[in-house]
Design goal:
This is FhuF 2Fe-2S C-terminal domain-containing protein. It comes from Klenkia taihuensis. The protein is mainly alpha-helical. It has one domain (4-188). It has helices at 4-12, 34-49, 55-81, 115-139, 145-166, 171-183, and strands at residues 29-30, 83-86, 89-92, 102-105, 108-111, 191-193, 199-201. Helix 4 (115-139) packs across helix 5 (145-166). It is globular, with a radius of gyration of 16 Å.
Length: 226
């Protein structure tokens, strides 16, 4: 089994969202400090979107962006190498455009040989201990947990699309991991596949309410999964 640093190097080759930085820069905030991260990131996003963007929509956008940023290297590494890197802590830069700088500390390697292993590993080592507290911090402000759980599956699907695009040979494995995530565990039933083969989540992320925004490709408003 390759070590965690080798798995992360392989993930970085899939795209910038799948890369972890050595240093997140001055003012970086620990993911575990959800309130501080939400306030700082929401302020930065609101400054770009303007006053027409309501807090609820901004908070959902921030939640989705942070989840996508922190999970992309983990899922990318697991798909590319069969190793799930698991950090003791994650810090992110709350300002700037995506992908924002992000650094991990105390990273260990967990073997995930099959798609079911990847799904179970993500749930046990990422979703429950790291993502759930962040989700709870956002939910305490204004956004429905159903919306936020949908954001998580949407983020993972987005990473799967990036991985399959960069490494077409991994497309079947990425689809199998998504199927496993949707079949059991904390993301069970949160999304599915449309008759045309496209993916759809089962809750709206609220982003289509932002000025000038269109529904996302996986939006439940575009079409329900089968």
């Amino acid at each position: 089994m390759p070590p965690a640093d080798a798995a992360l190097r392989a993930a970085a080759e899939l795209g910038p969202f799948c890369a972890v930085d050595d240093d997140a820069g001055p003012g970086a905030v620990d993911l575990a400090d959800g309130d501080t991260l939400l306030r700082a990131r929401a302020a930065a996003v609101s400054a770009v979107l303007g006053s027409a963007a309501a807090a609820r929509e901004v908070h959902s956008l921030v939640h989705l962006g942070v989840v996508a940023r922190v999970l992309s290297p983990a899922l990318g590494a697991a798909l590319a190498t069969g190793v799930l890197p698991v950090p003791a802590s994650v810090v992110l830069q709350p300002v700037g455009s995506n992908p924002v700088p992000m650094a991990w500390a105390g990273v260990r390697a967990v073997a995930v040989r099959t798609p079911d292993d990847v799904a179970a590993g993500l749930a046990a080592h990422w979703l429950t201990p790291l993502v759930d507290p962040w989700t709870a911090a956002v939910a305490a402000r204004s956004v429905s947990p159903r919306v936020l759980t949908g954001n998580v599956v949407s983020a993972l699907h987005g990473t799967a699309v990036v991985v399959a695009g960069a490494r077409p040979g991994l497309a079947a494995r990425t689809r199998a991991v998504l199927d496993a995530l949707l079949a059991a565990g904390p993301l069970a039933g949160t999304g599915g596949w449309r008759p045309d083969g496209g993916f759809a989540r089962r809750s709206c992320c609220l982003l289509q309410r932002l000025p000038g925004a269109l529904p996302c490709a996986d939006c439940v408003l575009v079409g329900l999964p089968a």
